[in-house]
Amino acid sequence: MTRTGLLLDFGGVVTTDFYGALRAFCLRERLPEDAIETALATPAGHVALAAVESGAMPQREYEQTLARMLDLDAEGLLSRALADLRPRTEVYDLVYRARAAGIKVAVLSNSWGTGAFDPYAGYQLHEWFDAVVISDQVGMRKPDPAIYRLAAEYIGIQPGECVFVDDTSRNLPPATDLGMATVLFSDTTSGVHEIERLLCLS
Prior knowledge:
Shape: globular
Mean pLDDT: 97
Largest sheet: 5 strands, parallel
């Protein structure tokens, strides 16, 4: 099958290692390196994350909630936690080549809310991508199948003609159920090669 659409997660795919950035921050704060991941896996953490990602909780409230769970200063917590993220140049190069080949490309991101901290600033997403779908701005989040369908609709491609790429495994099954080819992005080189293969770019 010819795939003509590409949906990319933001943190950890378009950017450098998302979970690595969180762990580095925790170590700087003299916490266990998995402290944020552990907090978010608790019932309260799960509820707060779902709320901010879907736009039901303001970013500032989420920042304060996470700060209480970690016993840290809430001021600028989210920007400090993600300070190590950078654009992943290999993926930007892939996006350029994909679009040059006529493939429509979108970012599909679960967000930590819209507020004082903008994790997307400096990435020029609206210049590099055909569509940008941010969870809190559309009121739904991965792994809700509706947001995958919406992203495909935004680029005018049927879901079954898309490749979906994410660094979080639980976000892949809904895309598979919609007929998308999926890539778990855990390594830059192998991830880019697999996307190239699926899009016939290599």
